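User: I've been trying to design a sequence by hand for this structure and keep getting stuck. Would you show me what you'd pick, starting by listing the structure so we're on the same page?

Assistant: Good idea, let's start from the same input. This is the structure you sent:
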């Protein structure tokens, strides 16, 4: 059994239409969140006993002149996150939230995968409005303060 199988089972349990890519242990699906649309990529690295979950916002076109501000926003967002992190490709502006686990002496199950995926999706849902504001020209520090303000 591949480590990707419990991830695929989780997607099915959630009712998320997922696609297993050929030749690589990757399952992908898209979701409409309250704050925007995302794509989820689950990568299994059986030889390293790792599962990586990437949640990528769709439709973010980051102009070159806003990349530094977006990087600041993501750095501020990362500070204090209990699990996972935002990352940005400085070449093309692609942004992911990444969560991962290394499997040691345990059986991988849907119950183990669920909090990894749900936590990543919830984090992107929370920070996406501020990220969109920064892309549109808002100050990163002010955008983070608004996102992280007590509700």
């Amino acid at each position: 059994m591949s480590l990707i199988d419990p991830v695929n089972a989780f997607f099915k349990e959630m009712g998320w239409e997922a696609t297993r890519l050929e030749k690589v242990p990757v399952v992908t699906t898209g979701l409409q969140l309250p704050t925007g649309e995302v794509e989820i990529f689950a990568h299994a690295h059986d030889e390293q006993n790792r599962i990586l979950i990437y949640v990528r916002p769709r439709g973010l076109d980051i102009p070159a002149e806003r990349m530094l501000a977006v990087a600041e926003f993501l750095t501020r967002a990362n500070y204090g996150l209990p699990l996972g992190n935002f990352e940005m490709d400085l070449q093309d502006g692609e942004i992911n939230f990444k969560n991962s686990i290394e499997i040691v002496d345990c059986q991988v199950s849907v119950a183990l995968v669920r909090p990894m995926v749900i936590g990543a999706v919830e984090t992107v849902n929370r920070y996406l409005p501020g990220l969109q504001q920064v892309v549109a020209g808002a100050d990163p520090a002010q955008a983070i303060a608004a996102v992280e303000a007590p509700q």
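That's my pick for every position. To get oriented when you compare it with your attempt: The mean pLDDT is 94. The two ends are 43 Å apart (CA to CA).
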